[in-house]
Design a protein that fits this description.
- The complex is a heterodimer of chains A (339) and B (745).
- In chain A, the strands form 3 sheets. A 5-stranded antiparallel sheet of chain A has the order 4-5-8-6-7.
- The radius of gyration of chain A is 19 Å and the shape is globular.
- Chain A is 27% helix and 20% strand.
- Chain A has 12 helices and 12 strands.
- Chain A has helices at 12-19, 34-39, 76-80, 83-88, 90-97, 102-107, 110-115, 121-124, 166-172, 274-280, 287-297, 309-326, and strands at residues 5-8, 25-28, 47-50, 60-62, 68-71, 176-181, 184-189, 212-218, 226-232, 243-252, 255-264, 271-272.
- Among the domains of chain A are: 5-52, Uridine Diphospho-n-acetylenolpyruvylglucosamine Reductase, domain 2 (2-Layer Sandwich); 226-335, CO dehydrogenase flavoprotein, C-terminal domain (Enolase-like, domain 1, 2-Layer Sandwich), CATH 3.30.390.50.
- Chain A is α+β, with helices and mostly antiparallel strands.
- In chain A, strand 6 and strand 7 form a beta hairpin.
- Chain A starts with a strand and ends in a 13-residue tail after the last helix.
- By secondary structure, chain B is α+β, with helices and mostly antiparallel strands.
- Chain B has 3 domains: 16-22 and 449-592, Aldehyde Oxidoreductase, domain 4 (2-Layer Sandwich), CATH 3.30.365; 31-135 and 195-276, Aldehyde oxidase/xanthine dehydrogenase, a/b hammerhead (Aldehyde Oxidoreductase, domain 3, Alpha-Beta Complex); 143-189 and 285-447 and 600-744, Aldehyde Oxidoreductase, domain 4 (2-Layer Sandwich), CATH 3.30.365.10.
- The longest helix of chain B has 26 residues, at 515-540.
- The chains are: A alpha+beta (339), B alpha+beta (745).
- Chain A binds chain B through residues 1-2, 41, 119, 121-122, 125, 127-128, 140, 143-145, 147, 232, 234-239, 242, 309-310, 312-313, 316-317, 319-320, 333-334, 336-339, and chain B through 44, 61, 63, 118-119, 122, 125, 430-433, 616, 618-621, 623, 658-659, 663, 665, 667-668, 670, 672-673, 677-678, 680-686, 740-742, 745.
Chain lengths: 339, 745
């Protein structure tokens, strides 16, 4: 049997100590992805460190600067339905509820959401080449069935996309990831947490082995007035985004004071282009301006045999979702397009 | 008196409570002493040979009992025909572990048997394999030049080849007032019932097995096991009391049955083999099919030229066929028809009947082409169907046994509100959504074949009915009990339907929408025979008042025999039991259609389907907001279970039109989305208002019950109706299924 040890830890220090050393020491929280990866033999573990009992990671607290701290072990469901999140960060709430299924969200944790791996078919099928799973073996998706794959930031080594919805909202909200490790604590701006595949597609993010995510901080500005999350996919629930968009605006007397636009389902990480957001500042929230912003965001996008449509779809989705953000009440469950 | 008839009443499933409380046991859930667990190893190449299969390390693991491969498997039957099951297409049946040849990706190549499932599964990963790979072909479109006529065989009886050409299609088409031609395609689909395929074999001593199998035919599995392993039929008992969906996948014995029996016989132990979800993609499937349709009509809308050609994939070893192109001829009275069906053998497993096989494929092309013609003629699509309404089947020259399709069109159209449709595409809007109305016709066979049934009355006046038939979730248990109840004049509670055991009277595989007609007729005959037996015995009692009566005048009710024309006679069956010492009374009967007359008429089920879609104009997102299906399927025994069949079919139709496909990667010759996260079927949020109407249809020709079967018809018309609604909404004809919303951008 592929034996591994399993240990429950009750504080961060213990977790870090147990994870230290072998790369096959893995942390498990909700288990909604790593259990699959273990069963498919995509990931192998010698030691599973169950971090669920760590109380300090399981809370939502208000911060002195007006922001909110999301515990890494707080579940996606509890986060999405938390009154503070619903009221002040509805974009995050909507994005979480657009993901997975009710059952999975009840198990999945916030830290785990950041750590989930791509859903590329070839990554999960250990009989096919995949640079992410087996560096140097090649990318099967580039010449394969690549409907769900990347159009931005991909490399010739990997065209996988990062599948999270929650993280698209976290990127748009300028969240910060708090990390604890053998060398103490550190913080990463959300934009620097996930990586592009480049030459190292086996690395999804900048967490160093032995570190754990302790919490995620949301800044005070939650864009609760003008926000929208739109998710486009092949069925209405329980499927990953082909394209998703998080849009949030601060409006002042009919002009845009502050804009945030992040895309999901198109790249190896949530995709944000600050130039596009800067372009929208002090502009009217019009279809034309949103279209211009979409062009800036999608600059350099390119697709493959089965996913070329994503470029035009993303362009339209950005426009539509930015318009929907002007009327947040037009949002429908499941982050469907407005009526 | 018991309230009868129960036929026609919406009785809830008699086994429903067992299922929802988890008491109902499935094939992979039976426990047995010292049960061993098998896990199947599948090839990771598509074509070639196994050069090395080294099981030493795996076998050395603690808890591993044996590993079977082509190198050490016990010998099994020699001849091809011994492997042939009731649903085997012409060709050579696939034989697991026969030799080192790999014919398709995912082929079972070894069975690991261990004392736990987990150990068997882990050991399977420790087998060292080396292959010699060969070039393979899995892509239908790039092999179209290899298309050829299918071979004929036993299966051709229920799946006749297309009729011969009639008239002169080319000439008629060229001179048609309007023409429509189109190419259609759908990809591979896998059945994916919730319950995985599993077999638990109980070793009952030398050469005697009790087998719990997931199957749609207990006798089919019994026959396969007996033939392949050289056992006597009576020593092989196959039981399948509950089946968690099958949809055709259980019409043939699957490889877990072979593996489990082989291991059990070799090890003389109880063995279970369960497939996992990915392995559910390593056997039969709905074949990828290309279709070409060319229809022509005159200025009045009369269809005069019909060409329909289908090219489907099959394996290299069997010629799987389905009826794809025969339907237009049975539905529309065109003078000039050319119908062709071709196969392309590829390096895949043999396709297998999947709910409405062929019909749901072919009618997609037929009804989309009809829709296109209606637009070109500027005739309402319903009106166009009525103009071309056949009162007689032109393709065979035979009468219909019954056909209330006209009522289906009219009743469904009224219920749907078809009159609110504005004909022009893109002319109906709701907010930022384009609204489309589409309709289509559905058609399916109403077949009946041979079955047997037994009725046993015990001295308490209760009756047990026995049949080897399964209930694959369709409501068979309930329906058979209702049929027996009405025939015997007993309340449902007094009747037990015993089923799904190969030691019971013969029933064929449960498929083709023929179970109610086939097994129901046998149950009816057995019950009538029981009544005759009771009547005969009653007549012997001089005081019964029945001595001079004829059976036709007897009325059976609540354990009494009455006479139609005599209020005085009331004879208790208890008196019969009192006279015979309480001995049970048993009748066993066969029932099959009269071969002299049965073929004289054509027997079909029909439906009319109306669908509303909303398409987001900017983003292409499609929602099926409403659908109405009206069905003419003869007598409906149980409107509740029948409605469930139609609803399930309609949802499957939505799936087929918009979601469902097995993704084949031709680089590797393998399927890539072999799990239910990536193999998309609709979720609740995709399903909106669905309505079912059963149209009155009397048919005294099909069988005495007047039933036709509703298992398949619900699927057939939905994909074309949705495709047509999308055209009405957007002005775009998307003929490849499933329709991905990005095609509407």
């Amino acid at each position: 049997m592929n034996n591994f040890s399993y240990i429950k830890v009750s504080d961060a220090k213990q977790a870090i100590a147990e994870l230290n050393g072998d790369i096959r020491n893995k942390a498990v929280a909700g288990g909604t992805n790593i259990n699959d990866l273990l069963k498919y033999f995509v990931t192998k573990a010698d030691k599973l460190v169950d971090i669920n009992p760590i109380q300090e990671f399981n809370s939502i607290i208000r911060l002195d600067d007006g922001g909110v701290r999301l515990g890494a072990l707080h579940t996606n469901a509890d986060t999405a339905y938390d009154p503070i999140i619903e009221e002040r960060y509805p974009l995050l709430s909507k994005a979480i509820l657009a993901g997975a299924s009710a059952q999975i969200r009840n198990m999945a944790t916030n830290g785990g959401n950041l750590m989930q791996r791509t859903r590329c078919y070839y990554f999960y099928d250990i009989s096919t080449p995949c640079n992410k799973r087996d560096p140097g073996s090649g990318c099967s998706a580039i010449s394969g069935y690549n409907r769900i794959h990347a159009i931005l930031g991909q490399s010739e080594n990997c065209i996988a996309v990062f599948p999270s919805d929650m993280c698209v909202a976290l990127a748009a909200l300028n969240a910060q990831v708090n990390i604890s490790g053998p060398n103490g604590e550190r913080k990463l701006p959300f934009a620097n947490f996930h990586r592009l595949p480049s030459e190292t597609p086996h690395l999804d993010n900048n967490l160093i082995h032995g570190e754990v995510i302790t919490s995620i901080d949301l800044p005070a500005e939650g864009f609760a007035e003008n926000y929208s999350y739109l998710k486009l996919r092949d069925r209405s629930s329980y499927s990953f985004a082909l394209v998703s968009v998080a849009s949030a605006f601060e409006l002042e007397q009919g002009t845009i004071k502050n804009a945030r636009i992040a895309l999901g389902g198109v790249a190896h990480k949530p995709w944000r282009v600050l130039e596009a957001e800067d372009f929208l500042k002090q502009k009217e929230p019009t279809r034309e301006n949103f279209s211009q912003a979409a062009k800036i965001i999608l600059n350099g996008a390119f697709g493959y045999e089965h996913n070329n449509f994503k470029i035009e779809l993303a362009h339209r989705a950005i426009i539509r979702n930015c318009l929907m953000a002007l009327y947040p009440e037009s949002q429908r469950p499941g982050a469907k397009p407005s009526r | 008196m018991t309230k009868l008839p129960s036929i026609g009443k919406p009785i809830s499933r008699l086994e429903g409570r067992l299922k929802v409380t988890g008491i109902a046991k499935y094939a992979g859930e039976y426990q047995a002493p010292g049960l061993l667990y098998g896990y199947v190893v599948n090839s990771t190449i598509t074509k070639g040979t196994i050069k090395i299969i080294d099981t030493a390390d795996a076998k050395a693991l603690e808890g591993v009992i044996e590993i079977f491969t082509h190198e050490n498997r016990p010998s099994t039957a020699w001849f091809d025909f011994q492997y042939a099951d009731m649903d085997a297409p012409p060709g050579t049946v696939f034989k697991p572990l026969k030799d080192n040849e790999i014919k398709y990706n995912g082929q079972p190549i070894a069975l690991v048997v261990a004392d736990t499932f987990e150990m068997a599964r882990y050991a399977a990963t420790q087998i060292k394999l080396a292959y010699v790979e060969e070039k393979f072909e899995t892509d239908l479109e790039s092999n179209i030049d290899k298309a050829r006529k299918p071979k004929k065989g036993m299966a051709s009886m229920l799946k006749p080849p297309p009729p011969k050409p009639a008239g002169d299609f080319e000439k008629a088409y060229e001179s048609s007032f309007v023409q429509s031609s189109g190419e259609f395609k759908h990809g591979t689909e896998h059945h994916n019932p919730m319950e995985m395929f599993a077999t638990t074999v109980i070793y009952e001593g030398k050469n005697r097995l009790k087998i719990y199998d997931k199957t749609q035919g207990t006798v089919n599995s019994q026959m396969y096991v007996a033939n392949v392993f050289g056992l006597k039929m009576k020593n092989v008992q196959v039981i399948a009391p509950f089946v968690g969906g099958a949809f055709g996948s259980g019409l043939r014995p699957q490889y877990q049955l072979f593996m489990a029996v082989m291991a059990s016989l070799a090890l003389k132990r109880n063995v279970r083999v369960t497939l996992d979800r990915a392995q559910m993609f390593t056997f039969g499937h709905r074949p990828t099919t290309l279709q070409y349709a060319k229809f022509g009509a005159d200025e009045k809308g009369k269809l005069n030229a019909v060409y329909h050609k289908a090219i489907g994939e099959t394996s290299q070893f069997e010629d799987y066929t389905e009826i794809v192109v025969n339907w237009a001829g049975m539905l529309y009275p065109a003078e000039n028809t050319l119908l062709e069906h071709r196969l392309v053998p590829l390096d895949v497993y043999s396709p297998l009947d999947m709910r409405a096989p062929g019909g749901s494929t072919g009618m997609h092309a037929v009804e989309v082409t009809m829709d296109d013609l209606a637009y070109k003629l500027n005739i309402d699509p319903v009106e166009f169907r009525l103009i071309n309404y056949a009162e007689k089947d032109k393709s065979s020259g035979k009468e219909y046994s019954s056909k209330e399709l006209r009522k289906c069109y009219l009743q469904a159209a009224a219920k749907f509100g078809w009159e609110k449709r504005s004909p022009e595409p893109r002319s109906m809007k709701r907010g930022n959504k384009l609204v489309g109305y589409g309709m289509a016709t559905g058609i399916w066979d109403a077949n009946r074949i041979l079955a047997r049934a037994q009725a046993i009355m015990t001295s308490d006046g209760k009756v047990e009915i026995k049949s080897a038939v399964t209930d694959i979730g369709t409501g068979t248990i309930t329906i058979m009990t209702q049929i027996a109840s009405d025939e015997l004049g007993l309340p449902l509670e007094d009747i037990t339907f015993s089923f799904a055991d190969s030691s019971m009277p013969f029933a064929p595989i449960q498929g083709g929408s023929f179970t109610t007609a086939t097994v129901g007729s046998a149950v009816q005959v057995a019950c009538r025979a029981l009544n005759k037996e009771l009547f005969k015995k009653a007549k012997r009692d001089k005081d019964s008042g029945l001595a001079d009566a004829a059976f036709e005048d007897a009325v059976f009710s609540d354990g009494f025999i009455f006479l139609k024309n005599s209020a005085e006679v009331k004879y208790s069956v208890q008196e019969i039991f009192a006279a015979n010492g309480g001995k049970e009374i048993k009748t066993t009967n066969s029932s099959m259609p009269n071969p002299l007359t049965y073929g004289k008429k054509i027997k079909l089920v029909h439906s009319a389907v109306f669908v509303e879609v909303e398409v987001d104009e900017e983003l292409g997102i499609i929602e099926v907001t409403r659908a109405v299906t009206a069905v003419a399927a003869g007598k409906i025994i149980n409107p509740k279970t029948a409605e469930s069949q139609i609803l399930g079919g309609m949802i499957w139709g939505i799936s087929k039109a918009l979601h469902e496909e097995t993704i084949l990667d031709n680089q590797f010759g393998k399927y890539m989305n072999t799990n239910l996260a990536e193999y998309h079927i609709p979720v609740h949020a995709d399903i909106h208002d669905l309505d079912v109407v059963f149209v009155e249809e009397e048919d005294d020709f099909v069988n005495d019950l007047g039933v036709k079967g509703v298992g398949e018809i619900g699927v057939v018309g939905m994909p074309p109706a949705i495709t047509n609604a999308i055209f009405h909404a957007t002005g775009k004809r998307i003929n490849n299924l499933p329709i991905h919303f990005d095609k509407l951008l």
